């Protein structure tokens, strides 16, 4: 995770700028909102309940995502910046998991380049 960027389209929010390096050496830059990380985390915990520690918390290998902050103004830069390092650590921990998790469809789709990654909205 390289940085955070403020966006105003369709409304004010922040995205995390992520440099993705694939196993073939190709690199791309993608942009993801915190809510997309949260969605991925929910998918992972549903798909891998054992690895998510639902039966036994000591068995959990899926990393923890920094919690949702329910302030009225979670779009403020301070919140986004405070999450930058934990989100970077989350991404790194996620790809270190066994391949059946780190290379599952949900993880691959999350890090795939999307049309708005190629042409981010201009301020």
From TrEMBL:
GO terms for cellular component: anchoring junction; cell projection; cytoplasm. Its main location: other. Residues 1-118 form the PX domain. InterPro entries: NADPH_Oxidase/PX-Domain, PX_dom, PX_dom_sf, SH3PXD2_PX. The keyword DNA-binding does not apply. It is found in: Cell junction; Cell projection; Cytoplasm. It holds the Pfam family PX. SMART domains: PX. One of its GO terms (molecular function) is phosphatidylinositol binding. This is SPD2B protein. It comes from Anthoscopus minutus (Southern penduline-tit).
